[in-house]
Amino acid sequence: MRRSAFAFGASLAILWGGLTLPAAAVEEGQFIKKDGKWEYYSGEDPGLKYLLLKGIITQDEYDRGLKVIEKREQVSKPNYNIDVNNGLNFRVGDKFFLKLRLLTQVRYTHSAYNNAWGTIGDSRNPEILGGQVEYRAIRKQSDSNQFSVPRARLQFLGYAFDPDFRYNISWAFDQTTWNQEGGSGRAGLLDAYVSSWHIPWLTVQAGQQRVWFNRATISSIATSTFADNLIVQNAFAANQQNARDIGLSISSDEDQYKFNYAIGIWGGVGANLAREGTSVSQNVLPQTGTPGAPGAATTRTYNYDTRFMTGEMMYTVRLLYKIAGNPGYGQGDILNSRTLQSAIAFGYAYNPAQNYLSSIRSDIVDRAYRQAVTKAYNGRLLAGGIYDFQTYETDFIAKYQGWSLQAEGYYRHQRVRNANSGTSAFDLNTIPSAQFLGPPVNLGQAYGWYVQVGKYIIPRKLELAVRYGFMDPSTQQVNDLVKEFGAAINYSFDGTYNNRLVIDYSNITMGSGGRAPDRFPFESQPGFGSDLVENRINVQYQFYF
């Protein structure tokens, strides 16, 4: 009993002494995990510590010596750090950061086509640009099985000079099964911009980048619930082509504010292109015909070297209000939100003086420009003349406990400029096809919408989703509607978008009817106006390091 009391008293004395000792006597250090084991590492120099405890040096001398040693170690240590976290990260002090990321999607696709694909086919999209051949339709005589790498991308992003001066340079090595230029899989610049985030409500970004317009094209394809976007989502991009353009944007930091804005001024002709290469460079010759070919009565637009209408630009505005939380731009609720995350937004894009005079490759207008238009399922606009486009959109998103709901509506005003613009639309009166001529074509306007619903059955792992999209590409034409239904199941192996499998099914119905400026003769083909139906299954693995 006496020994227990003594031990208890000694313990109290030690505890009291420990509490009343000066701070310098407390050893400083940290636990470090090495080779799977936690070890304690002392941050103090053992030699200085020994001299202090023996009373050979004073506390002041110990502190000065410790500072000298710390300074020496700071100078001798390398001023950089390399780690792996959503990519390979390089840090040099606090002035430079580089994140290297790699996205690879490997896909198997099976498509089954109805009989209309083997007869009338698709005369609008996605590849109508056949040399000197204006009249062409893609027909599918049998089902198809395709292996592809639809997206392979290398990204360099980070900051330099200070954390608020950021950059992003990305390269795409994407493949496509329809490209006939031989460029599928070649390297192409995807992003190239610098940005200032010094003022959160006034961030500035310049270069080739995503156009902050509609939610579907803002969202990264790496976070998509499905293997591909709906047709209607891509068709109503601000520049009628894709998500990216070259220009300047000013916006607020959506992570910090409830109400946000984004305004931009752009080239308007898509990524890696400038208006100088896609501008009007044509003139309508008189009936005397082509120089060097007397009597070849034609009024076709031939290539000339004088370019004009290069001063026009595209303008965009997007306003977003976060109703609750911060839903971001990922499609599914992979974070399994415990509270409602919801937002609504409105966008407007004005893209004037778009040169759609021709639909053929042989023209001086950049062929990559027209191919991008057809790939976005806007091919029926080609050969219609010089367009001024005004596109409106509204989108809504909500996420809660694994559920997600996303919807958008679009309307595009498609105005053909009048004769006062100094240009004439493509004239179809070419040899030998006077028999193909039809009355002037009025495409009218375009509108569309989609709804998508998803649910993570197993939080952060297994998601099921369905979606439906609708598009009327030309309100003045008939039998040309686009309808798309899809269902998807995707599984994340690590609870992120970095390592996952996506399996989706799509039923795509496209009306083959509706006149287009230089494809009138298809009305005489059997089956014209019937629905083209494709049933498609994608099995896609995504690796995102």
How many helical elements? Answer: 8
Envelope shape: elongated
Q: Report the portion of residues in β strands.
A: 35-45%
User: Which class best fits the helix and strand makeup?
Assistant: mainly beta
* Topology pattern, helix = H, strand = E: HEEHHEEEHEEEEHHEEHEEEEHEEEEEEE
Overall pLDDT metric: 82
Taking all Cα atoms into account, the compactness measure Rg is: 31 Å
The count of β-strands is 22
Low-confidence stretches: 1-30, 287-293, 295-302, 423-437
Largest sheet: 16 strands, antiparallel, barrel
DSSP helix fraction: 10-25%
Report how far apart the termini are. 65 Å
Assembly form of the protein: single chain
Strand order of the largest sheet: 5-6-7-8-9-10-11-14-15-16-17-18-19-20-21-22
Task: For the structure shown, list the relevant keywords.
16-stranded antiparallel barrel; elongated; 43% strand; 545 residues; 8 helices; Porin_dom_sf; Porin; signal; two-stranded antiparallel sheet; mainly beta
How does this structure look, described?
InterPro entries: Porin_dom_sf. Keywords: Signal. Residues 1-25 form the signal peptide. With 545 residues, the protein is mainly beta. It has helices at residues 2-20, 46-53, 59-76, 116-119, 215-218, 231-235, 275-278, 367-375, and strands at residues 29-34, 37-42, 80-84, 88-92, 96-113, 144-160, 162-172, 188-196, 203-210, 244-251, 259-266, 280-284, 301-308, 314-324, 341-356, 385-400, 403-416, 446-458, 462-472, 482-492, 499-511, 531-544. The chain is elongated and about 105 Å long. It starts with a helix and ends with a strand. 33% of the residues are buried. Mean pLDDT is 82; it is low at 1-30, 287-293, 295-302 and 423-437.
